[in-house]
Design goal:
The chain has 220 residues and is an alpha/beta fold. Helix content is 30%, strand content 27%. The structure holds cytidine-5'-monophosphate.
């Protein structure tokens, strides 16, 4: 039994108390991973952005809103985990300033600009201090990309973020139950999962992560 940290869902980056920047992630992939992990007897710690659905029963869950909150919760739990999987669609940017209340719109024709600052890369931050832990990320590419392009970008993310492996798919996967997926590994290995539903993909992702962790422990 290992303890598995999973980030899931979108983050919301508030402009004021009402308006925010976000994306359409539903948390479904993270939930599939959590369900599969618990079925295999593992402990799950889920750091969950705002989604409509309730997390699968049985996992420890921390509800967060922004990327900074998600980072704090994930960092806090990381030391108790052996595997971390970043399934969250973290907003890349947040407004530099958050206004209080709901400021009134100015003249209807006036354009506005928003100053944005970059959010921290949560999974890369965890991977930078992983020790023996296994850290897994996702690389979601636009629907226009071919699977080969998605894989090439996944390999780039894998190196930049120091991940052990990266799950590559395309944005047609958002809010869907199934999509074409491939895994790319730090040792150059590739595993084509084909088109799978998220539950079957989650099982394959978990078994690779648990196997890698076992190998690493065995070699230590
Ligand atoms: O760079 P990109 O956003 O495509 O990377 C996706 C992977 O990195 C996912 O695993 C996602 O959860 C993670 N990520 C993160 N923090 C960010 C951006 C992405 O953990 N700020």
């Amino acid at each position: 039994m290992v303890s598995i940290l999973i980030t899931a869902g979108p983050t919301r980056e508030h402009l004021d108390d009402v308006r925010f920047l976000s994306n359409g992630s539903t948390g479904r992939m993270g939930f599939a991973l959590a369900t599969a992990a618990m079925r295999l007897g593992h402990e799950v710690r889920l750091v969950l952005g705002p989604v409509d659905a309730a997390p699968p029963p049985g996992c420890m869950t921390r509800h967060v809103v922004s990327a900074l909150e998600m980072q704090r919760a994930a960092e806090d739990w990381f030391s108790d985990c052996q595997i971390a999987i970043g399934a969250a669609a973290v907003a890349d940017w947040r407004p530099a300033h958050r206004a209080v209340g709901k400021p009134a719109r100015h003249g209807s024709t006036r354009s506005e600009s928003i100053e944005l600052v970059q959010n921290p890369d949560i999974i890369a931050g965890l991977a930078a201090k992983k020790g023996q832990r296994v850290v897994v990320g996702f690389a979601l590419e636009s629907e226009a990309a071919t699977m080969e392009q998605a894989i090439a970008r996944g390999e780039d993310k894998l190196r930049r973020k120091q991940l052990d492996f990266c799950v590559c798919n395309r944005s047609d996967a958002i809010a869907k139950d199934s999509s074409a997926m491939a895994l790319v590994f730090a040792d150059g290995r590739r595993v084509d999962l084909g088109v799978r539903d998220k539950v079957a993909a989650a099982e394959a992702i978990l078994s690779e992560a648990v196997r890698l962790y076992g190998e690493r422990r065995g070699n230590a």
